[in-house]
Specification:
Blueprint (H helix, E strand, L loop, with lengths): L2 H6 L9 H24 L5 H25 L7 H18 L4 H17 L2 H4 L37
Length: about 160
Amino acid sequence: MTPGAWFCRDGTRYFPGQRWVSISLRSLHLVGVAGMGAGILADGLDPGMRQMYVLLTIVSGFAMTLIFAWSEGRWLLQLCGQSVLVKLALVAAIPIWPAAAVELFIAIILISGFTSHAPARLRHFEPIRWCAGSGERPVSASGGKRGNNRGADGAGGAES
């Protein structure tokens, strides 16, 4: 399969239990982000615990990214997917540049807020149009517009 065919394929893939895997990963991700914020903003954690929360945030975020990319490759081309990749890079930069941790963390939160609550048309905008007809949001098998990164079981949304 060519990269273009992978990104631009019609339809969305799901696996059994995807909803519960996504809910579990999102919950772990929230724990990681909250712990990371406590360690960075309040300096309330020893460095080892702070690193553990940063790692939890990176691993859970990366796992959610893999699921969304596997489910719908086009997600990586959309602003919502690209913003997640930027956030993962910023989180990964925290252990490398601890002196900038507060600024990096605030940037992550701001990106999350804007991309999570932006209109679907903006979240699913494709800055680079690799796919034919990429100006339109795909239509799901049920006939409804796809555009909220939620699967047939309602799970999803990678904008957190």
